[in-house]
Amino acid sequence: MSRVACLALMGLQLAASPGAGEEIGSYVVTGDAIMEPLVGGKGDPARGATLISDRQRSLCTLCHSGPFPDAHLHGTLAPDLTGVGARLSEGQIRLRVVHMKRLVPNTIMPSYYRVEDEQGRRVATVWRSKPILSGADIEDIVAYLTTLKG
Description:
By secondary structure, the protein is mostly helical. The chain is built from 6 helices and no strands. The two termini are about 25 Å apart.
């Protein structure tokens, strides 16, 4: 899939994402990580695995490959997530999912728990000022990705 097609599909899918809807909680960035969970406690790795593979909500496999089902549908635009739990800490993974643009400003990866400046963008009223995924969803994804050690 071309980068343009990927971006167009991401825009369409994110606009229809059923996971959005909560207000953003506060978090603290320390270096290249968010050390504390966005919500109380650790996430569920099983739910995180499901979310990673959900091409309607998280869209991770649209651009990333890894040890996920349906390998023929994985993207090649972003790093392979195999072994990400051995390369990055829990806090580093969390920041990358929450707001990758803080680390790589020109990334095409959306900020899943940050509301970007919507000025000039066509965003339906019900979606304005809402993150793509909930804090609990992100903690589930972080919990799963930290299990990927090899």
